[in-house]
Amino acid sequence: MTKRKVSGSQAVILSLLEEGVDTIFGYPGGAIMPIYDALYDHDKNVKHILTRHEQGAAHAAEGYAKITGKAGVCFVTSGPGATNLITGIADAMIDSTPLVCITGQVASPLLGTDAFQESDVVGISIPVTKWNYQITTPEEIPEAIAQAFYIAQTGRPGPVLLDITKDAQFGELEFEYKKCRKIRSYVPEPQIDPFKVKEAAEIIDAAKKPMLLFGQGVIIAQAEEELKAFVEKTGIPAAWTLLGLSAMPTDHPLNVGMLGMHGNYGPNLLTNEADVIIAVGMRFDDRVTGKVPAYAPQAKIIHLEVDPSEINKIKRADVAVLGNAKKTLKMLTDNVKPNRHDEWLNRFNECRVIENEKIIHKDLFPEKPGLTMGEVIRIAGDKTNHEAILVTDVGQHQMVASRYFKFRQSRSNVTSGGLGTMGFGLPASMGAQLGAPDRTVIAVIGDGGFQMTIQELGTIAQNKLPVKIIVLNNNFLGMVRQWQQLFFEKRYSFTELQNPDFITIGKGFGIDGHKVTVRDDLEKGIQKMIDHDGPYLLEVVIEKEDNVFPMVPSGASVSDIILEPGTPKG
Amino acid sequence: MKKEYNITVFSENHIGLLTRITIVFTRRKVNIDSLTVSESALPGIYKFTIVINSTEEQVIKIVGQIEKQIDVLKAFYHTNDEMIYQEIALYKVPTEALFENDTIEKVVRNSGARILEIAREYTVIEKTGHKEETQELFEELNKIKVMQFIRSGRVALTRDPIERLSEFLKERDALLESLD
What we know:
The complex is a heterodimer. Chain A is of the alpha/beta class.
C-alpha cells in the first residue's frame, strides 16, 4: 500500500474501512467533529446510525457484535458523550463482547486543565476495557486502530477504547495501514497441551454420570458443530448458561436445558449428582453455581477455557484444557470413546416431566384469566418458526424468554448477562437487526427496562429498522418485586410503576403498535406484529404478580432449587 | 493463611498500565504494602515489585488478572523465603547530636549503615536492609532525634539460578514467530 497524506480524522475512517467496518453507532459533539466531517465523505462505504443517547450506541454496537462476531464500533464525543458509553462498555467487558469505541477528546494542550467537556475517559474506562489508549498525535492513529481491532476480536473478546484528541484529528500524517497480527505481551489463545486433553478424555471415558455445561465460549470460538459432535459421540447431556443459549438447537435430544438461578430443574438438581462436569467456555458465574461450596463438590471438573485467569477462579478444575474451544473440543472428541448414558440422560427427562407438570405447562398454556409471559414467548417463538433472533432486556421477561423461546441456529440470542443492564434490550435489538438484516429480530422487554432507553424508538424509526418489540407490561419491576415477595415479606418497596401509554408513545415516534390485554387477542396481535412491514411495538399486559420458577434462591445450593414458593426442596 | 508475598510483573512501558495493575488490587480491597517500578535489565521492559499480605489462593488469582492485562508480559509471585530483597532507608539527624556523644556513631557502625552527607544543620544516614532492620535503626536514632525519615519500596531478586524473564521471552518470541 502506498502512503498518502491525510488528516488524522480521515485516517480514522480509512483505518475502519481497512478493518471491514460497515456500521458505526454514534453521536457527534464538539471534540469528535473532525471525525464526523471525514465520515461525511464516506456515507456510501459505511453506515452511521445516530442513536438518541450514547448508551444506546454502545448497546447497539454490542447487539451488532453478538450477531456478527465482528467488533461493534462507536463514535462519541468527549466528556458526557464518553461517560455515557461506560455502562455499555462495562456490559461488553463482563459479557466478552468485542467493541471498538472511539471517543473524541479535547486538544492535547488542554488535557488535564478541566477544559470544556473534558473527562478522563481513559482513566474512567480502565476497569471496564480489555485495553484502552489515548492518541495525541495523528501518526499514532493507524497502528492504534489496528491494535484495537486485534485486541477486541481475538482470544476472549472485549471492549477497547481509543481516545483521540482533537489536534490529533486535525493534524496530518502519511497514511499507511497494516493490520495487527501480533502483540508481544498478548497471547490471545493459549497453546493447547495435548496431555491435558488425554487426561480429560480418560476421565470422561470412565464417567458414569457426566454432564457438559456450555457457555458463550462455544459461540465465540464458532465451535457449535464441534460441541455437537462431542456430545453425540459420548452421549453426554449438555446444559447451557444464559449466554451459551442458541449454541445448540433446543430440540437436540442431548440438550437438557438451562443452568442457573431460573434455569431448568434437571440440570440444576443433577449438577450435584454428576460425577464429571465438563465446562466449555463458561466461567461458573454465581447465577449458575449458587452457593459455591455446595456446587458439585462430588464431581471432577474438566474446564475448557481460552482465558487462563478463569481457571480455578471460582471452581477448582481437576483438569484445565486451555485453548480455543473449536480446537480443544475437536481434540477431545478424537480422544474419547463412543459412549451412551441413556439411564443418566433419562434422569434429566424425568426432571423435565416434573418441571413440565409443576411449572412449564402452566406458564405456556395457562388456564387462569391473566396472561403469562410464557405464553407470549411460546407464540412468538412458534410463529417465527424458531428462526428469529431473540433480544432481551433484564428481569423476569429475560428469564422466561430464555427458557421458552426455542432456537434452531446459533448466534440467535442477544442479552445482557453478567452486568444485568436494564435498558440493554431496545438498543441492542437495533444492532442485531443491522447485523442480520434478513432475519426477524424480536426484542422482548419489560416495562421497566423499556423506559430506560425508550428514546431509541426514534433511532429505530429514523432508520426503518424492522424490529419487533414486545413489551411485557406488568406495571412492576417484576424481578425485584418477586424477590420482595419471596425474601422481603412482600414489602414492595418502590417497585410499582405508573406507566405511560406505550402505544401512543410508539406512534409519536412513528412506530405502529397494538396493546393486547386479553388472551383472545394475543395470537392475532403477535401475528400482526410479525407480518407488519417495519418496526412494530406490541404491548402485552400480563399478570401483575407472576413469578419466575424454578428458582435457586440466592445463596442456596443448586440442588435446593425450588419449583414453587414455600417448597424448601423440589 | 495470610502472609507476605512478592509479586513481580514484567511489562511494556505504557502510560496507564500502573493504574491497570493497581486496580486489580483495589477491586479486591487488597492493600499494597510496597511498590517499586523501574526499567529492567532488558531495555523497554519494566519491572514492578509489589508486596502484599494475603493468602496464596488470592495471590494466584491476582497474578492471573494482572497477567491478563494486554501490556503485561509476565507476572510471578514468591514468598519472602524464595527471594533476596532489600529496602533502602534515609535518616536525617541533627549534626550537633553527633558531636554531643558517640551514640549515633556507634549505632551507625553497629547497624552497617553509612553516612551520606554531612551539613552544618543535619546529617543524612543511609541503611539498606529488611523493613524490620531499617525500622530498628529508626527507633535507635529517634531516641536522639530523627528530623526526617524515608524508606523505599522493596527491590527483590529470586533465589532461582535462571533469569525467568529471559527464558520466558525466548519462548514468547518462538510462539509469536509460529503465528506468522
